[in-house]
Write a structure and sequence with these properties.
Layout (H helix, E strand, L loop, with lengths): L46 H20 L11 E6 L5 H12 L3 E6 L11 H10 L4 E6 L4 H8 L4 E6 L5 H14 L8 E5 L6 H13 L2 E5 L15 E2 L3 H5 L4 E4 L15 H8 L3 H4 L7 E3 L12 H4 L6 H19 L6
Parallel strand pairs: 1-2, 1-3, 3-4, 5-6, 5-8, 6-7, 8-9
Helix pairs in contact: 1-5, 1-11, 2-11, 3-4, 5-6, 5-11
The structure holds phosphoric acid mono(formamide)ester.
């Protein structure tokens, strides 16, 4: 392809981010596999590395807008999509990116697997790795699951969402969508992230990515759903959703992640909706040019009103579309393949 697809050098990332087993501490009884490229999170990733991945994603997007003619960038590369937790958009967009790049996708879901017979995560992954797959894409309900796989398997690993930790490809597609809306410049921009911040891997990846690119983040949500270390992450914490939204260049509404919540964190859904839902009146507090994002799946009329989700500021489906190109860029980088 004609477009530049310069890929980030691992030196751009601090150890432990593109989890570098050569320099990360290795626990007794584990093995390290130097030289592999993993994407486990956006924390610590340099602006240079992020821009390289976004440029590669733009190149794939432009190519696929012109033509869906087959490419051979990942020909012969077998990718296991190991989803231990449910997914619609992440799983399908990874698989679509793999097919468009000429890779061979191998699907794995807990349902129908030998996990039901008590096989552990590591034994399951080692079994699949022994079949000779070249790249793992892993989603798991436990924070650190992808890092564990990166440490233990001699195969590049892409984190497709691990517990409440990170969802780096979602973070990258959010950045690409914001770059589209803002003419590519992040400096001086501010994003309001609303709702269940504490349980959100999407929020953590967005916060790290936006900070790296020079944008500010204001978070707002019930006190029980805003992490105590929000300030340490470099965010401002607003007392109300109105304070967070006023003048912001974008808003990201988050789903209440009840599957990761202890009981008693919210008085009631009705109280949450009244205080925190992104509705049309609140959205009018945003800057005139501002856009509204949601990672999906949406609980319509809980964290976001339907007329905002479907309104003119909404870029929700643009996020989904960008996910395919972003995941193609990440897969090609992890497999150390420059575009055909
Ligand atoms: N945003 C996101 O991760 O959605 P899925 O759970 O459908 O993959």
């Amino acid at each position: 392809m004609a477009e530049a697809t310069t890929l980030p050098d691992p030196a751009h990332a601090r150890a432990g981010i593109f989890f570098d087993p050569a320099s990360a501490p290795v626990h007794p009884g584990t093995t390290a596999h130097p030289g592999l490229r993993h994407l486990l999170g956006l924390e610590g990733l340099s602006a240079h590395a992020i821009h390289d991945l976004l440029d590669a994603a733009r190149a794939w997007r432009a190519r696929w807008t012109r033509s869906r003619a087959p490419v051979t960038t990942l020909a012969g590369v077998e990718v296991c999509n190991a989803f231990f937790e449910d997914s619609t958009r992440t799983r399908l967009s990874f698989e679509l990116a793999q097919r468009r790049l000429g890779a061979t996708p191998l699907g794995f879901g807990v349902a129908g697997s030998s996990c039901s017979k008590g096989e552990s995560l590591l034994d399951t992954l080692r079994t699949i790795a022994a079949m000779g797959v070249d790249v793992f894409v892993i989603r798991h309900a436990s924070s650190g699951a992808a890092a564990l796989a990166a440490r233990e398997l001699g195969v590049p690993v892409v984190n497709a969402g691990d517990g409440a930790h990170e969802h780096p490809t979602q973070g990258l597609l959010d950045l690409l969508t914001l770059a589209d809306a803002w003419g590519g410049s992040f400096a001086g921009r501010r994003v309001a992230i609303l709702g269940d911040i504490a349980h959100s891997r999407v929020a953590r990846s967005a916060i790290h990515g936006l900070a790296a690119l020079g944008a500010r983040v204001t978070v707002a949500g019930p006190a029980t759903l805003v992490p105590r270390d929000a300030g340490a992450l470099g965010c401002d914490v607003a007392p109300t959703v109105e304070d967070a939204l006023r003048g912001a260049d974008a808003a990201i509404a988050l789903r209440l992640q009840t599957e990761r919540m202890d009981r008693g964190l919210l008085p009631s859904i009705g109280d949450y909706v009244r205080a925190w839902r992104l509705d049309a009146a609140r959205a009018r507090l945003l800057a005139p040019h501002a856009v509204v994002l949601h990672p999906g799946p949406m609980n319509r009329d809980v964290e976001i009103a339907s007329d905002v989700a479907d309104g003119e500021r909404s870029v929700v489906l643009r996020q989904v579309a960008n996910g395919v190109a972003v995941r193609a860029a990440v897969l090609a980088w992890c497999a150390d393949r420059v575009a055909a």
